[in-house]
Give the backbone structure.
Amino acid sequence: QVQLVESGGGLVQPGGSLRLSCAASGFTTSRFTFSSYAMDWHRQAPGKERELVAGITSIGDSTNYAESVKGRFTISRDNAKNTVYLQMNSLKPEDTAVYYCRAFRRYTTYQYWGQGTQVTVSS
């Protein structure tokens, strides 16, 4: 059974930093391995639609970011550890949301979502 578990969320002051982790398990018994999946981070604030924050290819050779987080957030992955990360710096109150990680394969229906982790930026 494939599972994605986010961690590292919490309460932080404006201008502070957090590092989110998404640990994957169960891929050894699935059709494809963790390294076959692209990964991305999404977030959803109360009353707003879920939005893409950052994405990374299966081998980590390319990344993309939402305009609102460029220069502040960095996505990375360690396929040996089956883990993807989101380093968040210079946090703003508008970054407050539940953050979710997703594993997916292009041109297929294969995808998995984590349960989410709360990030709150407030004084």
Notes: The mean pLDDT is 95. The radius of gyration is 14 Å. The chain has no helices and eleven strands.
